[in-house]
Amino acid sequence: MATRLLSHCLPFPKVFLKRFSNIKSYINLGTEMKLLNDKKQFKKALALFDQHGINNILTLSNFTITQVLKACAHKGDLQRGKIIHNLIASKTKNDIYVSSTLIHLYVLCDDIASAQSLFDSTKNKTPAMYGIMMKAFIKNKQANKAIALFNEIQNPNDVHMLLLFNSCAQLKTKEALDLVKKISKQIPKSFYSNRHLLTSLLDALMKCGDVAHAEALFYSSKDKVLPMYGAMMKGYVDNNLSEKAIALFNEIQNPDEVNINLLFNACAQMKT
């Protein structure tokens, strides 16, 4: 009798354990996908989502949603990303991380129209969203749009200013140069420790033809890095000042491949 009762009850623990296992994998899905994304194993992350998450997408956490969207973005899987966007449309209104990740997806997949549409419809725009869109406009040779977007930002950070300088460098106009000078005067001193920002500013000044201003900024900088030398050398070559480019190259202790190529360009310009 006891044996029959035991055999009757045995299936229950098995079913319970199976369900518990499914719940556990469901709960850990976002974390497991993040681990794969961090290792750039985006294909595996999407396969994991297809196995455990696709049928429960409306009940998944926003964290998990951002992970699958990141995987789609890096795999260039725009179609899958759009399908997921349609399924979770309500989440984009309330979660800035989901919205930001979706915008990034559209930008990486070169669907700028969808990215801009989502950006424009987002009420609580984050600094990161502005940066993503500015970068997208620059990539698509729409520098004026990037500048217009910059003007909407109340408290731009160093990334926004770097992107603004990149926009002005792309335009190479007097108006762009005036804007570069205006913004550079407003930069907080703390921003000047950002070498990427300084390199971008030097590049913008050179491409807009203000060699003297670029030189003053370059030589006043104590911590010069190779990209700064590169921006100056390229600027000299672009402004037909190849002798200055060669002289500057001789100041570099350990030139990289970019600096060496710029030296060759300067020499070719002089035909020496």
From TrEMBL:
| Matching Pfam families | PPR
Gene Ontology BP terms? RNA modification
> Which domain of life does the protein's organism represent?
Eukaryota
Single GO MF annotation: RNA binding
Which InterPro entries does the record cross-reference, listed alphabetically?
PPR_At4g14850-like_plant (IPR046960), PPR_rpt (IPR002885), TPR-like_helical_dom_sf (IPR011990)
Residues spanning the membrane: none
This protein is called Pentatricopeptide repeat-containing protein
